UniProtKB/TrEMBL annotation:
Name this protein carries in UniProt: GuaB3 family IMP dehydrogenase-related protein
CDD domains in alphabetical order: IMPDH (cd00381)
Domain IMP dehydrogenase/GMP reductase: 19-310
Keywords assigned by UniProt, alphabetized: NAD, Oxidoreductase
Name of one Pfam family that matches: IMPDH
A GO BP entry: GTP biosynthetic process
GO molecular function: IMP dehydrogenase activity
The family this protein is said to belong to: Belongs to the IMPDH/GMPR family.
């Protein structure tokens, strides 16, 4: 039964929980971390780590997408980012980094990002970036917004994209408009049906929207808005927030009901937001996620294009930015060390997936699907 709280006369609200509010309960057995698996598979693509990168220029360049792929995860390139707009993307990023580190105000740095993103998307640059990833042999993924999906997807497919991510702050299966000047809204069901590649769509925050997206034919649903404390400001700008533990559990319930409804079609749930350490990764999967989308935890890598800064694609929105450009704590570690260790850090921010393996082992589960059944408690 849902836990409802009266917040005023005649108005109730549902009590919800974030990842910090819950803990994982050990089972009656343990096992060696050497015999557990952190692998997962979406459609025909299998990965050693349940890791999908948040598609931001601060973390994912063509080169880092390749590195992450070779380390067992999936790097998602932002097809509407700087790599698709500027031939000298590295020097353009250097301008952003220099502005932020030279003491420019937060608003000034965001304004610079908006200016840089006002340049048109160039299909030739986008194709070049995608082919760099494809030629390495790793799985190729790119993100488009719902507004530009129909326009950009043909270029992405011809360049070799194998997984398409349609991601916005909030993505629904139905968009209503009376504005004749607005382009026809994306019909996600028809759009997915016409493609030969699997589509991951989101974000969502509730059972109903997750179910609607699953019914469009999406292979995966993103839960959350990429919330990162001190970086994203969707809650302040729009008043919309996502308590991640509840949101992931609700989406997992939609996945279970959709599985029954279709007689066996499984849609993957990806948790995007509120994840800052390895314990959060374990909790997100314990709540029912198949994989996590990481941004800020990877921005600390020495190879990250943001050079110690992090922002999301929403920072460059031309009229209503919902992300700051903010520094992340220095880890002095490369991507391999951040993901696989070894670590001398005791805060769960290095060796992220070595810690996940240990969490599975300490609770007696052999793989991620089993671990989704682990017991949970709520803190007082």
């Amino acid at each position: 039964m849902r836990d409802l709280v009266e917040i005023g006369m005649g108005r109730t609200a549902r009590r919800s929980y974030d990842l910090d509010d819950i803990d994982i309960v050990p089972s009656r057995r343990t096992r060696s971390s050497k015999v557990v698996s952190t692998g997962w598979q979406i459609d025909a693509y299998r990965f050693d780590l349940p890791l999908v990168t948040h598609p931001t220029d601060a973390v994912v360049s063509p080169d880092t997408a390749v590195s992450i792929g070779k380390l067992g995860g999936l790097g998602v390139l932002n097809a509407e980012g700087l790599w698709a707009r500027h031939a000298d993307a590295e020097s353009v990023l250097a301008r952003v980094v220099a502005a932020a580190k030279d003491g420019a105000g937060v608003d000034d740095v965001v304004q610079l990002l908006q200016e840089l993103h006002s340049a048109s998307i160039r299909p030739d640059l986008l194709t070049e970036a995608i082919r760099t990833v494809r030629d390495s042999g790793v799985t190729v993924a790119a993100r488009v917004s719902p507004q530009h999906a129909a326009e950009l997807t043909p270029h992405l497919l011809s360049a070799g994209v194998e997984l398409l991510v349609v991601q916005g702050t909030i993505v629904s299966a139905e968009h209503v408009t009376k504005d004749k000047s607005e382009d026809d809204p994306l019909n996600l069901k028809d759009f997915i049906a016409d493609l030969d590649v699997p589509v991951i769509a989101g974000g969502v925050s509730d059972y109903r929207t997750a179910m609607h997206l699953m019914r469009t034919g999406a292979a995966g649903v993103i839960v959350g808005h990429g919330y990162t404390p001190g970086v994203t400001s969707t809650d302040r700008v729009l008043g919309i927030g996502v308590p991640m533990a509840t949101a992931v559990i609700d989406a997992a319930a939609a996945r279970r009901d959709y599985l029954d409804e279709t007689g066996g079609r499984y849609v993957h749930v990806l948790a995007d937001g509120g994840i800052s350490c390895s314990g959060d990764i374990a909790k997100a999967i314990a709540c029912g996620a198949d994989a996590v989308m990481l941004g800020a935890p990877l921005a600390a890598a020495t190879e990250a294009p943001g050079k110690g800064l992090y922002w999301t694609a929403a920072a460059a929105h031309p009229s209503l930015p919902r992300s700051r450009v903010a520094p992340v704590p220095s880890r002095d570690a490369d991507l391999k060390t951040l993901l696989h260790g070894p670590s001398s850090d005791a805060e769960g921010v290095v060796n992220l997936f070595g810690a996940l393996r240990r969490a599975l082992a300490k609770t007696g589960y052999s793989d991620l699907k089993e671990f989704q059944r682990v017991g949970l408690t709520v803190r007082n």
